[in-house]
Amino acid sequence: MTLLSIRDLSVSIHGAPVLHRVSFDIEPGEVVGVVGESGSGKSMTALSVMRLLPRGAAATGQVLLDGEDLSARTEPGMCALRGDRLGMVFQEPMTALNPLRSIGAQVAEVIARHRPGVDADRLAAEALARAGLPAAQFPLTRHPHDLSGGQRQRVVIAMATALRPRLVIADEPTTALDVTTQARILDLLRGLAAEDGAGLMMITHDLAVVAGIADRVVIMKDGAVVETGETATLFRRMRHPYTRALFAASTHRPARHGRAPGAEVAALDAVVREHPLPRRSLWGARPSFRAVDRVSLAVRSGENVGLVGESGCGKSTLARALLALEPLQGGAVRIMGRDFAAPGAPVIRRDVQAVFQDPYGSFNPRWRVADLVAEPFHLMRPRPTPRDARRKVEEMLEAVGLSAGDATRFPHEFSGGQRQRIAIARALITAPKLVVLDEAVSALDVSVRARILDLLADLSDRLDVSYLFVSHDLHVVRAITDRVLVMQAGEIVEEGATETLFSDPRHPYTKALLAATPDLEAALIAREAAQTAPGA
Amino acid sequence: MRRLPLALWVGGALTLLFFGLAALSVVWTPFDVTKLIVSSRLKPPGAPYLFGTDHFGRDVFSMVMVGARTSIMVAVVAVAIGMTVGVPLGLWAAARRGGWLDEAIMRLNDLIFAFPSLLLAILITATFGPGAVNAIIAIGIFNIPVFARLTRAGALPLWTRDFVLAARVSGKGAGRISAEHILPNLSSLLIVQGTIQFSLAILAEAGLSYVGLGAQPPIPSWGRMLNEAQTMIYVAPWFAIFPGIAIVLTVLGLNLLGDGLRDLTDPKLRRAR
To answer: Which of A273, A458, A469, A522 is deepest in the core (most CB within 10 A)?
Structure first.
């Protein structure tokens, strides 16, 4: 019998439709990937199944779990279901756990709620062990702040699977995690679902992840299902144009015209950056954590350099050191051959600008676009006249694919991708030689990301600007850089031309990173091989 | 147009009423509050004395009007002192977060917080003599740490935002960033707190006047009216009741206005509604 059957589910919030006649099924033991960009309604679908929709939402249609229509249940009836037959794993393991309660207590809470009278602590220990946190190394009395992001996500998974639910819904469970951690968490989810014969609804924006884990895929766009089918078949046939567009965007590589590397633009020379730690004792030196350990690198004109590594490896700290935003404890930064360590060097500063990750936090919400983009003119000597500044801002807005008329609007009137274009315009307005892009496309949807990468590639060729591209996403770095540096624990462990390094990694860490990175094509080939193999 | 919250309506109306009475008292009051008419002393409320008269035959309604002026004047100047000193201190501390200057500013604030406000007011009055100006200074000093702390607490998360990083990449210094990026994003927070502090300042002024440390005769003041009325509370209860009601309604109105403004300016609450 079908485990979960969603029939003509429509949801509107305060009258605005967010889901339109969504229908799909999940069989016992099946992994179904729900894929879509932000606003496609994939999370709303999950929340509808759990009946956890925000206030003001109205749903029509049916959600059948083991043949029972959940919409007939009362709220207490749904409470009895959640955590017992329905488990949910959230995106952000940092906020999904109560920081004041031990991990054992949080898992035991779910068990005690649904199975009164059983030894909840023993079952909690079992559930945590199953999720890869054996009590010997991870006692139940540990608190979430003692654990890493991946370990916390294991606790969330233990909570969701403690009672061996019929259906587990995982909403972007690995988006906030590093690639090596992601690979292990995906294995764990798939393994637990298979062990219990449970269905797994895997919500993600990442086609490579879904190709690796899901048996069937549901593609959503603007609150409706556009295509659904068996994973390998769906991606090979791609009947719907949106599926093709999504596929093309995730494997997109912008066209680049090679430029001859020229003079050195920026260089770091044995840079050391230490963060002070809390005092251990009243006397003695304050201990410190070395985030960047004697790193040297150079960026020449005409080349784009990538800096990859997992969270906490020091790559963002290094980027900030290059931008002279933080004091150094050793070494030197040179921009265009001049020392940049001395504060208040506006003449040099205008040669190096930056684009940050969050398209929503990058702008003062009370400023208009014209003033935002013109902000770096503060560095120009002499300052451009207001008329000149305005003309340059309008030219730059057009260069990044917006219109001159956008100058009078406020940032909240733009989408995430458009805002990142504004951020790029701001970074390029002083005609810098180097732009530091710190996870500049990580927060964007794949189709938007593909267009922003095109824009960046085009601008670097046209304006002769070099990029230092800091990212955890190896695909993106491979698409836009000429040379890559791999960073681990504050040190550069490997460096080389992008294609060489990706095809022939030498350092074990680089190899591990590449192996853990989900690859759409490889996943599809493996899936097809498994299907044609005898006895599969 | 969106419906304004009820608190904002009621609070705004009460606040406007008292500001209006205070403004009117500058040009016109029903009776002259400095003229003593012994023949009409202790008249109960009724024509022509709306709120009755006191033991000197002065019209209580006129005294409440002029008293509103005193209260509002003291509160406006005191909150202004608190804001003009406290906000820059808070911005400065946030700009030097974690440094010794931050520590020094905030510990100085703690020191002021630790003093009972009445004690300091008595100290100032004992040194410079009683009067409205000294009450203003005493209340103003106690507003400084409130605004300094609030500004610093609001500014700290803003300093980690990407738009502040972008401003630093644009070569802007801490002072310019504080003025251009931090302060404008704190304005709604400060306006709301300003309203609340305004009501607290009116209460504080009434308290200081009551113990004789505020405005001196013949300037009417709500607190001193209460003081004078308390010996006659059984003979002329109206003399105590009306200034009391004036204090309650003004403070209530300002608090409601502050709450309403917060609901209106806080995007998180706006979405929940």
So the answer is: A469
Nearest to A378 among B161, B172, B181 (CB): B172
Share of chain A above pLDDT 70, in %: 98
Is the per-residue pLDDT at A318 higher than 70? Answer: yes
- Which strands form A338-339's sheet, in the order they lie side by side? A288-300, A264-276, A330-335, A338-339
Percentage of chain A modeled with pLDDT above 90: 29
As given in the structure block, the two tokens for residue A403 are: 């219109």
pLDDT in the model for residue B1: 41
Q: Is the pTM of this model over 0.80?
A: yes
User: Of B165, B171, B184, which has the smallest distance from its Cβ to A366's Cβ?
Assistant: B184
For the segment A427-436, the average pLDDT, to the nearest whole number, is 91
Q: Is B27 on the interface with A (CB under 8 A)?
A: no
d(CA A305, CA A517): 20
Q: Are B260 and B8 in contact (CB under 8 A)?
A: yes
Q: Using the 8-state DSSP alphabet, how is residue B53 labeled?
A: B
- What is the C-alpha separation between A287 and A279, in angstroms, rounded? 7
- Residue closest to A498 by CA, chosen among A514, A477, A528, A520: A477
Among all chains, which residue has been given the structure tokens 């001159």? A404
Query: Residue B215 contacts by C-beta under 8 Å, 6 or more apart in sequence?
Result: B70, B74, B131, B132, B135, B209, B221, B224
Under a CB-based contact definition with an 8 Å cutoff, are residues A109 and A102 in contact? no
Q: With CA atoms as reference, report the closest residue to A181 among A162, A217, A157, A159.
A: A157
Chain A CB contacts of B177 under 8 Å are: none
AA letter at B93 = A
Nearest to residue B229, comparing CAs of B101, B65, B21, B60? Answer: B60
pLDDT score, position A391:
92
Do B62 and B36 touch, CB atoms closer than 8 A?
Answer: no
Low-confidence residues of chain B: pLDDT under 50: 1, 270-273
Q: Which of A13, A375, A393, A419 to mutate to test the interface with B (most CBs of B within 10 A)?
A: A375
A419, pLDDT greater than 80: yes
For position B271, what pLDDT does the model report?
A: 47
Residue of A425, A491, A474 lying closest to A452 (CA atoms): A425
**What's the distance, CA A100 to chain centroid?**
27
**Which two three-digit tokens encode residue A467?**
């990029």
Q: What is the DSSP string of A154-188?
A: HHHHHHHHTT--SEEEEESTTTTS-HHHHHHHHHH
Q: What is the model's pLDDT at position B213?
A: 81
Q: What pLDDT score does B273 carry?
A: 40
Rg (CA), chain A: 25
Q: What is the mean pLDDT of residues A271-298?
A: 83
| Alpha carbons A112 and A104: distance in angstroms, whole number | 12
Bond from prior residue into B48 cis (ω within 30 degrees of 0): yes
Give first-to-last CA distance, chain A, whole Å: 22
